[in-house]
Amino acid sequence: MPTFLHKKFKLNFNPSIKKNRLLIAVSGGQDSVCLIKLLSEHLKQLAINNIEAIYIDHQWKKDSSKHVEHLINIIHKIMIPISIYQIKENVFSEAEARNLRYKIIIKHAIINKCNTIITGHNQNDQVETLIQHLLRGTTLNGITNLILKKQISNKITLIRPLINFTRSEITWFCRQFCLPIWSDKTNYNYKVRRNRLRNELIPYLENYFNPNIQYNLHKFLELCQEDNEYIKENAIKLYIKSKHPFLTSLNFNLLKKQHIVLQKRVLQLYFHYNFNKIINTEIIFIITKPKAQKNINKYTLLTNDLIIQYSNGWIYTNFSHNSQKY
């Protein structure tokens, strides 16, 4: 019998997904098990069978082989193929592990022509990520990274259909349908900062400041996402207008008339699309500061293996002689 979570899950999917080849990233925890059940039932209704699963085994745990066996049994019950990658190299941080997982998943998707990747991130994950980003310093683009739908490349879309599900809702769902969950002991290792944040900081904030803090932060992120999308759209339009039709150059006379937020975004787009580079905020500041705009006709910067030249209202950029274009 369908539950309110079935209805919520259905709303998170675009009907055009029928045309896609799907890759579901799983772990065996309650988020993944919930995702597998909801997704298999939803795809069955849509008569979709172009789906496969992927699991990345870091081999951190002594019982990792049993964990893999448990996961294979779950996946085989819904009769979809699964690929398991075992990582033998040492990874010492959460960020390194996450980046390595995504790298493997995206490479697998490209090789197997999967144009949609599905993960089991939930609302609590989103809030935890927000707090982590705020604590270390971030941007509007950074805090809106964990969203329902994200375009990874021209051919691959990442979907998180549980992003508006709370962890308590997922727990209820798994109990309601007696789903086999693998309890991960590493979630209680307080040497991992995210676990300390999840099990200590957030409960403290709920108890002493606001019991609805996770919901409120989730709604705040939705508003931030809308603002960020608006800025992105306008930055792309401005980039198209300001780029040189033939040279790797930007019309800074046109760019400097716009709000500083758009100036920074257009410069980020310029360096990313042309050089696959992320330029640090200090360099962006030097380029956009009033001195560069008003009092100086020419200057040259050397950074990130790039030569950035400002001349007569245009920004010209090229690789330095010591670097190789890739």
TrEMBL record:
<dbReference type="GO" id="GO:0006400">
    <property type="term" value="P:tRNA modification"/>
</dbReference>
<comment type="function">
    <text>Ligates lysine onto the cytidine present at position 34 of the AUA codon-specific tRNA(Ile) that contains the anticodon CAU, in an ATP-dependent manner. Cytidine is converted to lysidine, thus changing the amino acid specificity of the tRNA from methionine to isoleucine.</text>
</comment>
<feature type="domain" description="tRNA(Ile)-lysidine/2-thiocytidine synthase N-terminal">
    <location>
        <begin position="22"/>
        <end position="200"/>
    </location>
</feature>
<keyword id="KW-0436">Ligase</keyword>
<keyword id="KW-0934">Plastid</keyword>
<protein>
    <recommendedName>
        <fullName>tRNA(Ile)-lysidine synthase</fullName>
        <ecNumber>6.3.4.19</ecNumber>
    </recommendedName>
</protein>
<dbReference type="Pfam" id="PF01171">
    <property type="entry name" value="ATP_bind_3"/>
</dbReference>
<feature type="binding site">
    <location>
        <begin position="27"/>
        <end position="32"/>
    </location>
    <ligand>
        <name>ATP</name>
    </ligand>
</feature>
<dbReference type="InterPro" id="IPR012795">
    <property type="entry name" value="tRNA_Ile_lys_synt_N"/>
</dbReference>
<dbReference type="InterPro" id="IPR014729">
    <property type="entry name" value="Rossmann-like_a/b/a_fold"/>
</dbReference>
<dbReference type="GO" id="GO:0005524">
    <property type="term" value="F:ATP binding"/>
</dbReference>
<keyword id="KW-0547">Nucleotide-binding</keyword>
<keyword id="KW-0819">tRNA processing</keyword>
<dbReference type="InterPro" id="IPR011063">
    <property type="entry name" value="TilS/TtcA_N"/>
</dbReference>
<keyword id="KW-0067">ATP-binding</keyword>
<dbReference type="GO" id="GO:0032267">
    <property type="term" value="F:tRNA(Ile)-lysidine synthase activity"/>
</dbReference>
<dbReference type="InterPro" id="IPR012094">
    <property type="entry name" value="tRNA_Ile_lys_synt"/>
</dbReference>
<comment type="similarity">
    <text>Belongs to the tRNA(Ile)-lysidine synthase family.</text>
</comment>
